[in-house]
Amino acid sequence: MAFQFVHLEPYSRRPDSKGRSTAFVFDEAARKPIASVHVDDPKPPTTIWGVGVEEVRAMHDAAAELAMTPGARGKLRRIQSSQKTLHTVVASHPYTVDEVRFDRAKLSEVRRWEKLTIDWLRHQYGPALKCVLRHTDEKQWHIHAYVLPTADPELKAAVYHPGIVAKRAVMAEGRRPGEDGKTLNKRSNAAYKAAMREWQDSYHEAVAVPCGLTRLGPARRRLTREEWKAEQSQAKALKNAVDRAEAVRRQGQDYVAKTRAEAAAIKAEAAKLKSSVDRLTGFGGAVRAVVDGIQESRIRAEIRRDFSRDLTAAKAAVEKALTEAAKAKAAHKALEKTAADQRHSLRQQSQRLASAQAEVRRLSSALAAALQEPEPKLGMTP
Fold it and tell me: Compositional bias (Basic and acidic residues) at which positions (predicted)?
């Protein structure tokens, strides 16, 4: 066996004809005894990406309780228990668990296969992919993926099944002119198969080819042993070609990175030289260039000789200018602080005046009420 195997299946909370429900799927993944009778020595799974299976179960059950769908008159109602709410994918590697356990080279191969499979799953399902786990208590090396459409308020997992989506699209389109129901059903089944082939082809291109696996096994196509061996050799050759292409790509990237680094260094040196030349514009700039003192530059050496006698005086002039600028800045800050203090004092006085006026109004009203006289108005002479 050296061909790919990847399978998908959606589940609902209501058990199917084989007794499988979302609860059963989670129990089997977690290796609960009631769902693990097919395993001689059940062992806990290993989560290799995302959250654990119990967390996925909790997310699924909570989302299913809240999921609503429009009814006949547009009124929202709870989804039916028969609706598919969980999507799963199983991928198996040709190696057995024992082969991987005792062969470091094969372990390296399945680790690469797992990584490529996870990358493919993430590309297929995006944020809906919640968990990828590995079981090592069965014969074949395999992993399980669990996809949960928590972003969908109706929790429709069937949208992740390409075959179902393609078939429903044809059925929704309806009969074509001169087409009966049987022909429509046949066309929808053909669309289902085509979509599933495309799904398998995408896995083959992204995972199987880099891992040296064929698209299909020999039994389904009734290949002879010689034909099967030839196809395996072809798959291996294709894998080697892909590996060589990847090596060449990495070498090219390294070369490009190295070239870019060298170009950046040259560009930086050119910018540094240009900056130095720009700083030579004017007397003050010439002084800064002299202070920088790049000994390797012939231009800087000439400048140092030309301005060495005036260097001390120029530095003193610069220091004096900096000092005066600092004083001016400090004086400006002091003025700003004084103005701010005055504005604050004015605001406080305004607040006290408003408070006093309010108190006068209150006392005047009280006095007028006590004497049963009209209430005086502020600013009027009694």
Answer: 333-344
Are residue 98 and residue 131 in the same domain, yes or no? Answer: yes
DSSP string, 127-192: GGEEEEEEE-SSSEEEEEEEE--TTSTT--GGGG-HHHHHHHHHHHH-PPTT--HHHHHHHHHHHH
What is the SS3 assignment for 1? coil
Model confidence, pTM: 0.59
User: What is the rounded distance in angstroms from the CA atom of residue 188 to the CA atom of residue 19?
Assistant: 27
- Per DSSP, helices labelled H in 280-310 are 283-292, 298-307
| Domain of 179, in residue numbers | 161-249
Beta bridge partners of 90: 7, 144
How much is the average pLDDT of 285-289? 50
Give the residue from 63, 242, 213, 79 showing the smallest Cα distance to 148: 63
Averaged pLDDT of the chain: 80
Q: What's the rounded Cα separation, in Å, for the pair 4 and 216? A: 7
Give the span between the Cα atoms of 343 and 335, in whole angstroms: 12
Closest of 161, 149, 225 to residue 192, by C-alpha: 161
Q: Which two tokens stand for residue 343?
A: 């504005």
Determine the Cα–Cα distance for residues 382 and 227; give it in Å rounded to an integer.
121
- The total domain count for the chain is 2
Report the pLDDT value the prediction gives residue 381, as an integer from 0 to 100. Answer: 43
Output the DSSP codes for 317-330.
HHHHHHHHHHHHHH
Query: Has residue 315 got a pLDDT over 70?
Result: no
User: Tens digit of pLDDT for each residue in 236-252?
Assistant: 544 454 454 454 455 55
Contact in structure between 79 and 69 (CB atoms under 8 Å): yes
Higher pLDDT, 227 or 98: 98
Check whether residue 40 and residue 12 sit in a common domain: yes
Please measure the distance between the N-terminal and C-terminal CA atoms of the chain and give it in whole angstroms: 113
Res. 107: pLDDT tops 90: yes
Q: What's the mean pLDDT in 285-309?
A: 50
Q: For the chain, what is the radius of gyration of the CA atoms? A: 40
With CA atoms as reference, report the closest residue to 46 among 119, 128, 110, 104.
110
Beta bridge partners of 361: none
pLDDT at 353: 77
Whether residues 34 and 133 fall in one domain: yes
